[in-house]
Amino acid sequence: xxxxxxxxxxxxxxxxxxxxxxxxxxxxxxxxxxxxxxxxxxxxxxxxxxxxxxxxxxxxxxxxxxxxxxxxxxxxxxxxxxxxxxxxxxxx
Length: 92
Known about the structure:
The protein is mainly β and 92 residues long. It has one helix at residues 38-47; strands spanning 2-9, 22-29, 32-37, 52-54, 62-66, 72-76.
């Protein structure tokens, strides 16, 4: 399994709580480790659904999404949290 373990926000957006402001996601597992642009992660989970999970309990799957303007991004599967699990990951 591949886990998303931390995120980098776009410049000037470190404290924002908007999934569209995520620039890169740190992935670990299955022989990969490093930051990947959100568009690359989007394409991966679109091609391989269920292959990436957020590295925080309850470990929801990362799923592809697109903004109303066609910007590719990712989010976690809905669960009982009020804030998306990806936004709860450590930031750099």
